[in-house]
Each structure stands twice: as structure tokens, then as C-alpha cells.
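Recap from last week: sequence in, structure out.
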Amino acid sequence: MNPVNHQMRLAARPAGLPARSDWELATKSIPAPGLGEFVVAVSYPRQRAGTPYYYYYY
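Predicted C-alpha cells:
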């Protein structure tokens, strides 16, 4: 099973506030690393809506 890269892309430049139609979700398979290469997985802490950012310590 190959890992999958999920990307949230801007599909169209918003006029005013962004709408759902201005975004697209793209998924792409991550190829196996070659000789001398490696894959890095980055994860970000999840924040709940309404919670100030300073409550999260990194």
C-alpha cells in the first residue's frame, strides 16, 4: 500500500469571502524513495475551533 499525499488547492481566486467552490482536494500517490532518498511525514497539531493558538505548546 503506497502512502497518499493529500493537498488542499486553491481552484479559483475568490471574489470576497472564499467559498467551497474556490477549493479542491487533490490526492496523489507518493512514490517509493530511490537510492539515497527518504520520505518525510509531517503532522501538525489539530486545533479545535474557538481555541486560542497559545494553548498549544510545541
